[in-house]
Write the structure tokens for this entry.
Amino acid sequence: MPHAEPSLPSEPVDNPRPAAPATYTERLSPGIWTYGAIALFCVFVFVMIVIASLPIAAGVSLALLVAGSVAAFVTSPVVTVADGHLQAGRARIPVNLLGEPRTLGRAEVAATMGPSFDPRAFACLRTGTGGAVVMDVLDPQDPTPWWLVSTRHPEALASAIRAAQAR
């Protein structure tokens, strides 16, 4: 049975508002300690395999080092403020549904993530970033009470969110 081809518009459809460039973008790449742990793991693998063959041990260890480092970097979440939305990793929310962003230092992040942490909250948390921004969710339909987003530049992220909220 033949499939019908979808009809295409005869004239191009104009996009009335092109996507605005991102006002803030940051990849929460792993810290030096993560890469050190990957390297240490590769040393252990090397020591276990070197008994069989030095070239094989070196090749396997080097391949693991490269693969682990690339995987750690590629899978690290990206935080973006663009086109009226905050995106942290795969999660995305319109900034008009967020309250006033508050910056947190390392100690405040640790306290927030402690025993009083609300499990309904969204947290895009990466160690080694040093700070975070927290915002209440204003949408009464959303069961998530607040967002906590790690960043190396809390003031810059908070400013970008405020600027997007003002638009």
Residues 24-74 form one domain. The beta strands are 24-27, 78-82, 85-88, 91-94, 102-105, 122-124, 131-136, 146-151. The CA atoms of residues 80 and 136 lie 18 Å apart.
